Structure formats: structure tokens, C-alpha cells
Amino acid sequence: MNNFASANSIAEIAAMMGDAARANMLCELMGGRALTAGELAHCAGVTAQTASGHLAKLSDAGFVVPEKQGRHRYFRLASAEIASAIEALSALAAAGPRRHRPTGPRDEAMRRIRTCYDHMAGGLAVALTDRLVETGMLRLGDGAGMVTDEGQRFFCDFGIDTEGEAKGRRPLCRACLDWSERRYHIGGRLGADMLRRATELDWLKRRPDSRALALTRKGQAGFAEVFGVSRDLLELSPHAERR
Fold this sequence. Notes:
alpha+beta, two-stranded antiparallel sheet, 10 helices, 11 strands, globular
């Protein structure tokens, strides 16, 4: 017995993501936050009734998970695997034919540093990954990642426990293809823990209305001193947190 998906199963999944309204909803949920049906309807440009139908299909297919809190019902991505699939498709779309679309400040911020479900993505995340590989903390290959013995000690000092694979079925470290850089950033539990730790240290700030993350002055110094990221890549934007 094998675990290979049939062509029909692949086609069904592709069709589920192939609708523009559903694709917009899934991309909006890539920020890692749970959103209401009304918020998702707004981002998809559809009516509440149409959004409800789309969300029912996505829920039945296992793409999103509904959560009820009081009188409100929220939706979030069902898993990191769904997020990885969306990121990979975004990379393919970015490599496709160029379309006329002026690049705005929001696009620049997203390309620099953003959330990819529950971990960091963008130019800074890719540079961080490169440094960890160059210094021998990580080994990446064929979409997988491995933390070295030296890396385990490094991450432990940084406040991240890399041991105990039994913490669920999610891999410790995986290589996630970055849609804007077309190179790898760190996903898996390690990627999620790195984002968590960076926000705990006040290196990065989440923005309520965007997947883009704000780099702080503490983060500028921290990423340079602890990870050795080039300061040229850590210039603060005009709207960055000045703490």
C-alpha cells in the first residue's frame, strides 16, 4: 500500500484553491490570525452569503478550521502543510509572466519581512537562513532541514528547545520556498519558535492589518549581533518601530 495521491485527488485540491475568492481568503489567512467570515468576505470582494458558501467548502475539504468564540465564528488555516502549499504556489505565480502592477509601500514591506502562517518569510528571513547554514547551525536540502549539534546548543542559548521530536507530528525544521525571494526560509517548529522568540524579545512587531512585520531597533541590533545578519539588510524603514 502506498501513500501517493491520485491525479484526481490532486485535481480536486487544485480546483479548491483555483477559485479567486477562495484563493484570496486563504492568502489572507496566511498571516496566522483567525478571521471572521465578514473579514474574509471583504478581502475576497464577495457578499457574506457567497463567502459563507466558500468557507463551507474550504472547511469540508480540510483547508480551514472554524472556531466559535462567544457569538463570533472565526476561521484559520487548518495546518502548516496548507500554508506551505499556498507559499509554494505563490512562488510559482511570482515566477510567471510579468503583469503590470505598481509596487507600493505595502508590497515592499511584505517582501522584506512578513509572516508565512506562523514563521518568518521575506528577504530578512532568507538572509537569516543563509547565515545559519553558513555558520553550520543548520543543514538544508530537498525541502528538509536538520539542526546540527552546534545548532542545538546555539538555539538553546537563544531560548529555543530543538529537542523532543515527540512534540507532535510537525517536523522540527523544513525548508520553505519563499515566494518573493525564490529561495528557502526556515519553516517547521523551529521557524515558528524563531518568530515567537523574536517577538518576545521585541525584535519584531506584528501589524494588525498586514502580514508584514515591523523590525524594531532592538531587532536591528539583535539579528546583527546574535545571527550575524548584514546590517545593510537591517536598515529600518521610515515606518519601523523605533524602540
